[in-house]
Amino acid sequence: QLQASGGGLVQAGESLRPSCATSNQIFSQSIMAWHRRAPGKQREMIAQINIDGRTGYADSVKGRFTISRDSAKNTMYLQMNNLEPDDTAVYYCNAKYGLGGFWGQGTLVTVSS
User: Fold this and answer.
1) What's the confidence (pLDDT) of residue 98?
2) pLDDT confidence of residue 86
């Protein structure tokens, strides 16, 4: 239901912009979010965007990452700037839809020092 892409291998200080596409039915009725799971750590939510565009961020990414949504493309983005090695993780997109939700398959981001 959710298709994530845009991960990759970058050096510290560089940028990436993963995306997450879904159907109009899901996208238009869902709070969308990005989560990540770093090696040896639990999954954490790092950014969320409401249907009305309000956003929220984890302290670990605030000021460096920007979440956005494009209703014309039914796609959510995560602009990640000034990446750090600690940002290395599998990034998952999530749609809070009704009483449940959907998860993307994950996209790997690796940041080398």
Assistant:
1) 85
2) 96
pLDDT tens profile 61-100: 999 999 999 999 999 999 999 999 999 999 999 999 988 9
Cα radius of gyration (the chain): 13
What is the Cα–Cα distance from 74 to 6, expressed in whole angstroms? 16
Give the separation between CA 89 and CA 51, rounded to whole angstroms. 26
Biggest CA-to-CA distance, the chain: 41
Cα 24 to chain centroid distance, Å, stands at 18
Exposed, middle or buried by CB within 10 Å (0-12, 13-18, 19+), for 106? middle
What whole-number distance in Å separates Cα of residue 16 and Cα of residue 83? 8
Percent of the chain with pLDDT over 70: 100
Number of H helices, E strands in the chain: 1, 11
Structure tokens, 72: 């014309």
Provide the CA 58 distance to its chain's centre, in angstroms.
12
